[in-house]
Structure formats: structure tokens, C-alpha cells
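Q: Predict the assembly, please.
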Amino acid sequence: MRTTYRKLFWIWELPKEEAWINEMAGHGYGLVAAGKITFEFEDINPGQYKYKELFMKDSFQSAKMRDFLRFMEEMGIENVGHVSYPGHTVIYLRYENNGTEPEIYSDLDSRIEYEKTLVRYIIPLAIINILAWLYNMAVMIICIKNGTPNFIGLISLINLGIAVAIFIHTGKKLQKIKALEQERTIHE
Amino acid sequence: MPQQALTEAVFYILLSLQKPLHGYGIIQNVEELSHGRVRLAPGTLYGALTTLTDKGWIEALPENTESRKKEYVLTASGRIVLKDEINRLSELVENGKRLLEE
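A: Predicted assembly structure:
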């Protein structure tokens, strides 16, 4: 039986989303399709599969992505869904659960590059949100001075909130990247 | 310019590809060669195979119609790189042993 859930995860919350999908799999709901806020599950044996999400810097239709997914398929890793973002894609991968934690990258260089991919994508989003907030605040102040008050600047606090959340997340990611780069100076 | 050190993953991939192998075969072979110490994750292997193919150190074999799995094999230039790396590693080991014994 298929069941659809609606749940919002921001793009920087992929690990949280992945944990939720794996929790669902543990309860017998296996992901079979994903949208930006929709997740479609079908009945599976609890814990039969484990899921991994990847943020890739290629579009889903690109030859590079097709080649990558084909390689994953050869490894027994199945692509069950994807969500497209400008120039990027989040792919949802499914493994048979053999009791080990699925890993996509085992070397430091690939792990560093992977972390940087998301950071490079979300920083411009934060800047756009800051600019939107500043612009709306300016509009609100001008309107108040002209005697036609509006509250667009206050509504735009959402933009500020998003930007702050991105910066907090970016800070954590940069710390992780720094730790991996330090590790790379002495180990592969 | 002297050849730069290869990563352990690349070294073992080149070593494994003296005979044609597909991705999963490489992972198994590397794990066996390293007695379970080196476990290549699929994304890392994919990245390495792409780079090594671009460099001409390995090549993908024409696809077999029976199996959809792509096989790779070491090229002549890959063999030279592998030999150079073995020489480099031998120097490391010899120097290490000699200085530790002094």
C-alpha cells in the first residue's frame, strides 16, 4: 500500500530528512518517490532498506548524472527519487540493509568536496534573502514617512530568519570542512 | 617533475585493474588485498575511475551485451605510474626501516 506524507525540510536539513526517511523505513515504510515537500512510501519489511540522500551539482537529466546513477545501480544502490534545484539535484538512494551504515564517500577529498557543494549553493540564497529583507525594510520606512504605513518589512522578517538559519548551518558546515581539511594534512 | 604520491585508494584500484574488473569487483578486490582495511565507498570509486579514465591510466572496455556492468582495465601508461609508485613506496619503506634501526 502506498502512503503519501507531506513534510517540509529546508535544503540545508538533508541529514535530518535522511534520518526521518530511515526512521520510516525502520517502521516498514520504504520511500519510493519524493517531491519538494511530499514523500511517497510503500510497505516494506521493517528495516529492509537504508536510504541515503545526496546533493549533487548536476541536473538530473545530465549525462554525468545518468552515468553516476548507473554506476550506483551496478553497486546494488537504487535511485528511488530526486528533487531538482537550479543546476543541482537531491537524489534519494536505497540500499539493502545489511547492518552496516551506508557510505557514499570514503576518502577525505570527496567528503570535503561534497560538503562544499551545498555551502556554495546555499550562501547565495542567504545573500538574496538578506537583500530582500533590506529592500522591504526600506520600502516600509519610506511608506511610513509618506504617511501610508505598511508592514512589508515586518513580513520580510521571514527572509531574515531564512538567512540567519542558512548562516548558522553554513557555520557548522565550514567547521566540518575545516576539521576534514586538517585531517587531510596528515591522513588521506 | 617527480610523480606525486598516489592515494591509497588509487594505488589499490590500479593494482586491481591488471585484469578487467567492474566496480563491485574492484571494491571486493581492494578489500581482499588490504585484508579488509581499505573499503572503497561507491562514490569515491566512481570519482577515482572517472579521473583515472580521463588521465588515460585505465580504460573502460567495450560493453558486454550480456552484462550491463562496465569493466575497466589498466593501460600501458597506468602500468608505468603504478611501477613508479611502487618504487616511491619502496624508498619510503627502506628509509623508514634504515633510520629506525640506526
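The CA atoms of residues 50 and 58 of chain B lie 9 Å apart. Chain B has one domain: 8-101.
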